[in-house]
Design goal:
Length: 121
């Protein structure tokens, strides 16, 4: 039977605690002392120096996996507001492309009527 080597062998704490501490540090950008406090709230007494050593030893793999899961920029862009200049109307018209309505944003509904502030700079 082929077993994978235990990375956390010869450590005082179980692998679940070590991996949770390293995950907290890299996922939420916490300090070592913050991770120490969070573990202390769960009943695990560990020093920030141990968390620092674990992050140095096991953190590269966690950071690599987090970077790989991060969404990449794609070809689709979602515009929020667009400025359209026309020769027929010397004013400006802003259309709302995204689906969110912000207070004070100039929007143009399907009826063609303009809502919101009429200022154009």
């Amino acid at each position: 039977m082929d077993q994978t080597p235990n990375l956390y062998r010869c450590h005082r704490f179980p692998g679940e605690i070590i991996s949770h501490a390293v995950w907290l540090y890299h996922t939420f950008s916490l300090s070592f002392r913050d991770v120490e406090l969070l573990l202390a709230e769960r009943g695990v007494i560990v020093s920030y120096e141990s968390v620092r050593r674990w992050c140095l030893k096991f953190g590269g793999d966690f950071a690599r996996r987090l970077r790989r899961r991060r969404p990449r920029p794609g070809d689709t862009w979602h515009l929020d507001e667009v400025l359209i200049l026309s020769a027929k109307s010397p004013g400006c018209m802003a259309t709302h492309v995204a689906m969110e309505n912000r207070p004070g944003a100039v929007t143009r509904k399907r009826t063609g009527k303009r809502t919101g502030p009429a200022k154009c700079s």
